[in-house]
């Protein structure tokens, strides 16, 4: 639970998924129990070819025996669901790229791969926060479907209300998009999921959240900045969005005390002019001078600013998506980054059979580090004892 795994070893303090996969001196991977006693007469399992610790170990082992088996000749371990003992040929292994069993002479190449299916179900959203306590607390959120239908979540429970709405069965299979999600909006979504005891599928890049996926509803949350690495203010000019322009908002004025404020324009410092690039700062100063006589309604301005941001994001992203669909028939937002989109397009449209090699991790000669003296000693012991001893040069797992 805490570590996101089904099991936890209280001896070596290691989380693990399957009892048969955990390696620990206090844990028996054959029967899945801790402190499995060893008897003098060790029974043999004829189904999976394993020598077990005791008759009691054999009883518990029968529940796990259906998972894998060991070849008594090459000592290779295989999953029953992938290869039966009658189909097995010593020396063959399953190629993770080609997805079938091959021998040691197999040459692996990058395979052509189909594009992911198109998905027309998108949600675009943005959070606004109160940062007066030096901790960002969402208190406003706007979300829009691809057709422009809008949903508003107000108040300091906006995070929970939005996520309750997003992670409903109505949105099963949807993709939610926010600009700079990986460094801002995504953390509020992750905070909600952790608080609900959900275990999301998550892709991180350092401390940045590249993608979140709901474990049951298959709802993805991605960052549009990973595809369009420009500020949201540049979207209107980049995509030719007539009538759209990112506005100005006093983010530092967004506090508990000012939620119902109506009056004069807040002081310039609340707009954070010193945090802006030169052109953006110049634009803010010019706009601020023009608005001096305006009445500032905080809730009205908060909505208009947030709604405008989401509209710009939605229209820009949909134009970006349509460009890819028209030229490559690829839906970019079914991937995580623009790099993964480009690779998908290349593998589907341009990859030719047996042209780009997949080089093994240890090279074609399996050049892993080993001690020459140890190999000589093991080979000698194997000859003297007339027993097969696995080492680095006669087994890929040695």
Task: Provide structural commentary.
- Among the domains are: 185 residues, Ribonuclease H-like superfamily/Ribonuclease H (Nucleotidyltransferase, domain 5, 2-Layer Sandwich), CATH 3.30.420.10; 28 residues, no CATH class.
- The chain has eight helices and 17 strands.
- The strands form six sheets. Strands 11-10-9-12-15-14-13 form a seven-stranded mixed beta sheet, sandwiched between helices.
- A hairpin with a 4-residue loop joins β1 and β2.
- The two termini are 34 Å apart.
- The model has no long low-confidence stretch (mean pLDDT 90).
Short description, anyone?
With 398 residues, this protein is of the alpha+beta class. Helix content is 27%, strand content 17%.
Descriptors:
single chain, alpha+beta, Nucleotidyltransferase, domain 5, 7-stranded mixed sheet, two-stranded antiparallel sheet, 17 strands, elongated, DNA binding, DNA replication, zinc
SSE arrangement:
Layout: E1 7-9, E2 14-16, E3 44-45, E4 50-51, H1 55-64, E5 68-70, E6 77-79, E7 93-94, E8 101-102, E9 122-130, E10 137-145, E11 150-154, H2 158-166, E12 175-178, H3 185-195, E13 201-205, E14 208-213, E15 220-223, H4 235-239, E16 262-263, H5 278-290, E17 296-297, H6 298-328, H7 338-350, H8 372-385
Parallel strand pairs: 9-12, 12-15
Antiparallel strand pairs: 1-2, 3-4, 5-6, 7-8, 9-10, 10-11, 13-14, 14-15, 16-17
